[in-house]
Amino acid sequence: MKLIPRSLFSRLVLVMLTGLVAAQLLGFALHMHERGELLAQATGMQSAQRIADIVRLLDPMSPGERRKIIQVLSAPPLAVSLDRAPLNDNIGNTAMGMRASVFGTMLRRYLADERPVVVAVSDSAVPAPGMGWGKKSHDRYDGSSEWMPPMMRHAEGPGFSFVAQVRLQEGTLATFDSRAPRTTTSWPYRLLLSIVVLLVAVILVSLIAVRWVTHPLNALADAADELGRNLNRPPMPETGPLEVVRAARAFNQMQSRLSGYLRERTRVLAAMSHDLKTPVTRLRLRAELLDDAQLRAKFTGDLQEMEAMVSAALDFLRGMENSEPVQPVDIMALLESLQADIQETGGTVVIEGQPSAPYPGRAQALKRCIGNLVENAVKYGQRARVLVDDNDARLELRIQDEGPGIPVEELDKVFEPFYRVEASRNRDTGGTGLGLPIARGVAELHGGRLVLANRPGGGLEATLTLPR
Questions:
Q1: Are the C-beta atoms of 455 and 401 separated by less than 8 Å?
Q2: Using an 8 Å Cβ cutoff, are 132 and 171 in contact?
Q3: 460-467 vs 449-454, strand pairing mode
Q4: Better-scored residue on pLDDT, 305 or 79
Q5: Of 123-132, 162-171, 356-365, 451-460, minimum mean pLDDT range
Q6: Is 220 within the bounds of a domain?
Q7: ∠ CA 17-19-20 to the nearest 5 degrees?
Q8: For site-directed labelling of 108, which of 58, 151, 185, 219 has its Cα 20 to 30 A away?
Q9: Strands 383-390 and 348-352
Q10: Distances in whole angstroms, Cα of residue 247 to Cα of each of 169, 226, 244, 256, 407
């Protein structure tokens, strides 16, 4: 899925944050539910206590005094009336019926007598008709314009209105229409603030923990990437948790074994190539003793080709050894030196642009790399044109020739050792098939790349890119 991040760090952070947010939301919902139940119970107890106090106040009064005192006491959130019709005592087993039963029990306990009490509960905040408050929306509260979020209705006090009827001692039926007070509709800002602080703290700690866990993996990936360019890189530090130490130790052992294997293979091949020079030299001397000039020329040509192949193999193997130290290299001086050498043999090399600063690299390896590319351009394209483009990020050399180019399907094959394009790089031209592999190996040794492309106007362009 595109929404899932690709890095391990991002995935771990996403999983942890999702779990934390879900846990906090669930905890907040449970808290608000419990808070609503407690507020409903507390509000019901307060309302029952107030009604009981009013009943005890009205009992000894005359009807006229009751009318006057009711006008004073009848105000939101409690309306009092003495002329309401009797309510139906039909509680039932519904949630509203259970609430009415609980409220009636509390009211009887505060009245402390056996007088009849009837309670009706509604899940709306609309007062009963005739109480003088006017009809209100279920999302509004006791005549105010303050909006109560729907997700909070279950947690804001009782969330319902009730009507209680109590018969006074002399027989008058007193009706009390009540609802939750305004103070129970406020958000728990302190709880929200504490949840946010806790969530931020846990997120910060989680980010640090995930970074701590994934850092060794990034270090291992960087070491593996560098190993492909520099087999003799310094070993990884074997520090940290046990699993990290084991992974670093295994990586260092693998690097040591690979380095030893390549050194041994290179040593054997270099020795074989070097030893081939002795019989080649003897054959050259014996060929000079031949009386047949035509046969002597053929032997001499074959021996020169064998000697060129041996020298190229030695250069190729020396490039694989990668033992030359890194130092600042004057690329412009190197190019001018190659230009002078080639011009002495009748070739043409044109240099355009110049590097802005010395390049930190291996001088002899770079000379072999650039020299092979320039010599190929002169050999197969009559003349070489070197374009230098340098900035703070990379050094780029583009070597162009005016030759026939290379078929598109063989642009990558020419980088294979001893591979030659027969149409242009055959035995008559002296190609060994190792010049381009050596050049690409040197480029990769410096963390760069070498690519070939046919020019639109004809000829071949080799682009050598070396990172700064």
A1: no
A2: no
A3: antiparallel
A4: 79
A5: 123-132
A6: no
A7: 65
A8: 185
A9: parallel
A10: 89, 16, 5, 14, 45
C-alpha to C-alpha distance for 37 and 401, rounded to whole angstroms: 87
Question: In sequence order, what are the residues at sequence separation of 6 or more whose Cβ sits closer than 8 angstroms to the Cβ of residue 299?
Answer: 283, 287, 290
* Upstream peptide bond of 77 is cis (omega within 30 degrees of 0): yes
Convert the pLDDT of each residue in 385-442 to its tens digit: 999 999 988 999 999 998 888 888 888 888 887 777 754 444 455 466 778 888 888 8
The number of folded domains in the chain is 3
Instruction: Give yes or no: residues 14 and 159 share one domain.
Output: yes
User: Is residue 51 within 8 Å of residue 129, measured between CB atoms?
Assistant: no
Q: Specify if 402 maps to a domain.
A: yes
Tell me the angle at which helices 63-73 and 8-58 cross, rounded to the nearest 10 degrees.
160
Q: Tell me which of 166, 191, 216 is where a domain ends.
A: 191
Distances (CA, A) of 136 to 46, 124, 125, 127, 271: 23, 9, 7, 8, 101
Distance CA 129, CA 122 (A): 13
Rounded Cα gap, residues 66 and 171, in angstroms: 13
| Token pair of 99 as six digits | 């609430």
pLDDT 10s digits, 151-164 = 333 334 445 677 88
Length of the chain, please? 468
Alpha helices in 125-241 (DSSP H): 189-227
pTM of the predicted model over 0.85:
no
- State the residue range of the domain holding 263: 228-323
